[in-house]
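call fold(seq) -> tokens
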Amino acid sequence: MPTFRRLLLGLLVLAILATPVVAVLNGWVGGQHWPMKRLQVSAPFAFVSQEQVRIAAAPYLKQGFFAVDLNAINARLQALHWVERVEVRKQWPDTLIVQIHEYRPLAVWNGKQMLAEQGSVFTMPKTRLPKLPAFNGHPLQAQDMVAFYAKAQPLFQSVGLGIAELSISERNAWRVVLSDGLVLDIGRNDADGRLARFVALLPKIKREEPRRLVHADLRYTNGFALTWRAVPAPAPAEPITNPQEPA
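ret:
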């Protein structure tokens, strides 16, 4: 028998003998053998609960160690509200390890979404939200607004105030509304310097002026334009009458 035919016949016989072995291995590796029995979850659990993670991952734990679909689990967990990023891996012989990274909410974004401390915009959950400032701007400005807030908020907290609203106009001009209703127009240039000068003088300004400060325009080189509202006079007290003794 020619050498080529003997080689071909040998390969054919080997393939026939190997087929049942491959089928068996596929059945063991790709089936329900070596089931996943343990779920180990690491997360802050500030907004996502361990029960939510367990319910989302449970259907995949029925699959064998070699058959479990990590990409499918990742996608399922990533779809949960408040989840920024997921890391999923297997540990022999029966453990699924999940690490959840949650969004840390910083502000309500344009009234419809949420802005995270990481600078990413995400879908507003339907659950009850914590009290947060309102940010308004273009998505490309989100990172700049996070950085601005991180610098400005401590300044205002030093005088007992906080940022309630923050916005950037189409011309990149900053506007801040403080927790007491005071509106600040900061402009485009030297925002940090303008804020620092204003906050340093704000306690003195309020101490020396009885009227309520409602607006401050900081877009001046050597000062501010301030708008005041008169404090309403207290209502006159009603006279107190002594009721007559009953007859």
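Residues 3-30 form the longest helix (28 residues).
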